[in-house]
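seq as requested:
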Amino acid sequence: MQDKNSLAHTQWRCKFHIVFAPKYRRQIIYGKYKKSIGEIVRELCERKGVEIHEANACKDHIHMLVSIPPKLSVSQFMGYLKGKSSLMIFDRHANLKYRYGNRKFWCRGYFVDTVGRNKNQIQEYIRNQLKEDYMSDQLTLFEEFDPFTGEKNKKK
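struct tokens:
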């Protein structure tokens, strides 16, 4: 099983699906900051020995499939990741300090799920998340009533 990792006296396979979002779910990740935030997250994961299997920055949240060593708890890692990345983001992009008061870039919480035999399904889900978000946005573009005239719109 090449899927296992090891420390000095431990073999482990601890994979987690993590989802977290910027404060107020602002869609800032998707634009010009996506690359920079990705670099910061990768760097912080490398520092802690966390392996990123799959990651995707959607419009207003980030999905990650990671292996976290057993010497770190998920909450320790997420506290470190969100805290340090906030500081690094504000250092690189000083103009964001005014939008996000108190130097807090991320929401307080996060979602985490353990990954067992469904690793491939989760990787596929993360890969396709942007496509699904785009499709759902396209479905909601049709407005039943014209906001200016109040007349009923016709579907094309």
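The chain is about 35% helix and 20% strand.
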